[in-house]
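Collaborator request, handled under Task 6.
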Amino acid sequence: MADNEQERESSHGQGTEPGRGEHGREGQGRGGQGQEGQGRGRSGDGETRGTVLVALLANVVIAVAKVVGGVIAHSPALLSEAAHSVADSLNEVFLLAAVKRSRRRPDARHPFGYGKERYFWSMLAAVGIFVTGGCFSFYQGMHALLNPGSEETGAYAVVYVVLAVSLVAEGTSLAKAVLQVRRAAREHGRGFLTEVREGDDPTVRTVLAEDSTAVLGVVLAIVGVVLHEVTGSSAWEAAASLAIAVLLMYVAYRLGRDAKDLLVGEAVKPGLQQEAHRFLDAQPEIDTVTQLLTMQLGMDSALLAARVDLRAGLDSEQVEEVAVRIKRELREQCPGFEQVFLDITDADHAERKRAERRREDLDRAVARSAGGEADAGA
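C-alpha cells returned to the collaborator:
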C-alpha cells in the first residue's frame, strides 16, 4: 500500500499528497501524544517488571533447593521439578529483557519501534520451557521408568520439605501474577479468562502460565513421591516426571504459538478494527472504505492502513486537508493506532461488493468475540 506521501491518483483525476502536512506539523504533535502513551505504558511496565522479579527470585531459590534435595534423596520427580525451576529462572531473565528492550524509541532502522521485541523474548521463553524443562523432565521420567532399581528415593522428609517450600513460593509468585491480570481485566471491562486469552502483555501471560504450571507440577511431584513411598514402586515418580514433561511441553507450545502469531504480524482485535471502520464510514467525505488493514506493533501501538474512495467534487487541496483531518481524528478516536496510512483509491463495483463482505465478516467476528467474553464472564 502506498505511503501518505505516495498517494495514488484520486477518483477525481487529481494527484494527492495528504501526508506532507501531517508528517511535518501534525507528526510532531503526535510525538507528544506518543510520549504520553509511552508514559502510561512505562507505568504498566513497572508493575510487570515487579511481577517478573518476584517470579525470578522465587524460582532461583526453589531451583537451588530442588537440586540439592533431589540429589540427596535421588528423587526423579524432584529433579524434574528442579529442571522446571531452572528453565523458569532463565525465562524470567528473557522476560526482563523483553520489558526493557521493547520500550526503545523508533530509529532509522526500526521506524515502527521495538514493540515486537516483547514477542520475540516471549518466544525464547517458550522455547526454554520446552527444552530445559519439558525435555529434561521427559528424560528423567523415562530413565526412572526403564531403570527402576537405580531410582530408589530416600530421605522422604527432605523431599516433602523442599516441595512444601516450593509450593508456598510458587503460590506467592502466582498470586502476584493473578492480581495483575485481574487488575488489567477490570480496567478493560472483561472477565479474567478473557484477559488471559486476549491480554496485551505477553510477559505477564508467560509468567502466569509458568507459575500456574509450577504449582501444578509441584502437586504432581508430591503425588508421585507419596505413592512411591506408600507402594515402594518408583514407577509413580517416573509417571509424575512424565506428566510434568507433558504439561511443560503443552504450555510451551501454547505460549510459542501466541508469540508467533504476533511476531508474523497479527491484526488488532476485531472490536478495535470495527471502531476504526465505523469512524471512517461516518466521515462525510468518504464514499466507501474498500479495505482496512491493521497490525499490532507492540503492546500499546498498532498500524492501520485503509483504502478509501472519496466522494466526487473534492479538488486536490481539499483531498489533502480531508486526509490530514481524518487521520488526526482517527488517532484521537483510537489512540492505539500510532501509525495511520490512507490510500485514496477509485473503487469499482466489484471492490465495493468485496468491501461489504469484509465488513460483514468483521461484524460477525466482533459478535463472536463478544459472545465469548459474555460466556467467560458468566
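The cover message to the collaborator said: "The mean pLDDT is 81. The CA atoms of residues 40 and 361 lie 33 Å apart. Please let us know whether this matches your experimental observations."
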